[in-house]
Amino acid sequence: MMQPPDGAPDPTHRDQDVEDEQVLKPFELLQARYLSLAERYEWLEAMINYVPDYIYAKDRDGRFLFANLAIVLNNGFTDVDELIGLTDAEIHPMADAYKIEEVERQVMESGKADLGVEERRLKGEGWLMMSRVPLRDRNGNIIGVVGASRDISARKRAEKLMSAQTKLLQDVARGVDLDVFLRESQVLLEELLNGRCVSFVLNGEQAEPLAGDILEFPIFSRDGGRHGALVTVQTDGDEAGLMEFFAGIAQTVGIAIDRHRDIAHIAYLAEHDALTGLPNRMLLDRKLSALLEKASKQQRSLAVAFVDLDNFKLVNDTLGHAAGDELLMVVARRISTHVGNGGIVARIGGDEFIIVLEDPVEPIYERLAAVLTDISKPMVVHGVEIRVGCSIGVACAMEHGTTASELFANADMALYRAKEAGRNAIRLFTPAMAEDARNKLIRIEELRRAVERDEFVLHYQPQKEVRSGKIIGVEALVRWQHPVEGLLLPGVFIPLAEETGLIVPLGEIVLRKACQQARLWQDRGLPSLRMGVNVSARQFLESSLTSHVASALQSADLDPQWLELELTESLIMRDVEGAIERMHELKELGVSLAMDDFGTGYSSLSTLRRFPLSRLKIDRSFIADIPEKPGDMAITSAIVSLGRTLDLEVVAEGVETEEQARFLEGAGCELLQGYLFARPLPSSEIESLIAGTVAKAG
Ligand SMILES: Nc1nc2c(ncn2[C@@H]2O[C@H](COP(=O)(O)O[C@H]3[C@@H](O)[C@H](n4cnc5c(=O)[nH]c(N)nc54)O[C@@H]3COP(=O)(O)O)[C@@H](O)[C@H]2O)c(=O)[nH]1
């Protein structure tokens, strides 16, 4: 604590009387009363000597007039008198002295203060903040310079530490590679701390032995775990600020590691399927391109196989998505076991996997057959034992393609063929498949155009009532009047129309034409005929179906009772509840509904009861082998009596022989349809046929 010179009043002493007087009397009076000039000088000098800042005054020639103790000691003197009268040139190296003189000369010449200039210390390490102001006499003449400087080394260091911390945080934000970040951080810290040893010891790493007492700052992870520690050696001058700095750096390193792991995880997720952990399409593309390059250089072969599970949707729909996920994981494991390190297994979509077999030693077919057999083995999913089959399509490099996309396209084509072959099959790509695919594409384009231009005509196949022998209805069957190929049967284009969705506009065309024809026959005075129109699965699922039917009826001005929509049994059974709802919607229009191809699906008596049907059409496959197959005859009789039980009329399709007709009549079947009576005929021929039967009856 600084003491005032002997005899001087203690300025910190607070005496109430004195304070009162100070308020009452002028300051000069007070000074004169208590302090002589010498006393005041002594007191001021003691005070100036006490402050750690450097304070001095110089004359115009740069000679020290006064300097406080801090300056005296810093320049290697013991008493101020030793310094008085000296110039900077006499106590500092020439260059430093010149610099000081230059600044002070400027201040004296300009009369302007030079405040807050940061400079390195002339002696020892550190920084000073310098201020110089002109020294003036009573008349305002500049007679020298007064300087004051403060040691700002601690602040400068704190700033450096902070900017180091900021730089590291910026590196973290920029996502600098972790190894680079750790290396650069270590170098930066060691430089900043004058070569002091600093290292980051991450979990699982061996710490380098350091001499001396060790300081450890834990590097925490975001979730409170520990990544490791920042390790350094303890030194005497370690102040609290530095400890905080180390702790802060350790925290920054923790963030960097967290971030690095996040990025690695995101990169992993971007290239892997989250469910099975298998590579996804992105990684597969990358890896396959590299493998293809290698295979091409080494003239080796490589197989790409597309694997698609059969009936996966059924598992999802019946057992739920969690069960579907479990199934996919089992399948992924089974495929991976077979492929091992000699290839890649990737999941590229719902139930689609791709296998790449590198230079297959065993014949490809055998390896894939083993995969197929393994996938098809029973598995327990959510407590239920199930089996799923699969179809596999294969293409080989370089034979079937040299790029990933060529091989994918060709393997996909082969897969399509495998599925067509009835599933659980493997097909190797052949150039003919590409040709077929090309033709299919051309056909789709032609079909699209045909729908736009309406190149379709309807033929009608009569339905004969057994009881009266009269034609009481027809089934409308579409034909494509192809501009080059002539009249095409539906088997050629209906499946394609289903696949592409073109069946929806095509179905609308058929509905309109059929309704118009029915109305035209009525207008021409023919007996009213029930018009049967096939509705495909895709059409039935369209929410617009009911409005399309209503609109077709309305524009033809046809009474709905003459329109019958034929829905296949398998279509209805896919989603019984949904189908019932849609059937009621249609029924409300006043049309009747028939179940087509009956016997090929799995409807039970109890579900059949719930359908608002008018007729059952026995599938022609049951009729074809009558009378050769007694089993078919029994089924046919059973369907007829089922119809009777449910109060539904039964129509037998595909009746080709008199024998079949007699059997069906005997069984009680009400309506017959087939080549025996007529093939599907153009409208004009139907007119003659009906006119003929009417005349015969008359
Ligand atoms: N969604 C739509 N599907 C339609 C439409 N028009 C037809 N089709 C479907 O195409 C399938 C094939 O039709 P098609 O080649 O016309 O064959 C029909 C008859 O010719 C044939 N048939 C009739 N009687 C006999 C016979 O005695 N023997 C025999 N071998 N074949 C015969 O059956 C077909 C009618 O069958 P079905 O529809 O089950 O009553 C056809 O199956 C339709 O599904 C359409 O406009 N939309």
UniProtKB/TrEMBL annotation:
InterPro entries assigned: Biofilm_reg_signaling (IPR052155), EAL_dom (IPR001633), EAL_sf (IPR035919), GGDEF_dom (IPR000160), Nucleotide_cyclase (IPR029787), PAS (IPR000014), PAS-assoc_C (IPR000700), PAS-like_dom_sf (IPR035965)
Domain EAL: 440-694
Organism: Rhizobium tropici
NCBIfam families, per database record: GGDEF, sensory_box
UniProt domain PAC: residue ranges: 111-164
GGDEF domain segment(s): 300-431
Lineage, opening ranks: Bacteria, Pseudomonadati, Pseudomonadota, Alphaproteobacteria, Hyphomicrobiales
Protein name: Diguanylate cyclase (GGDEF)-like protein/PAS domain S-box-containing protein
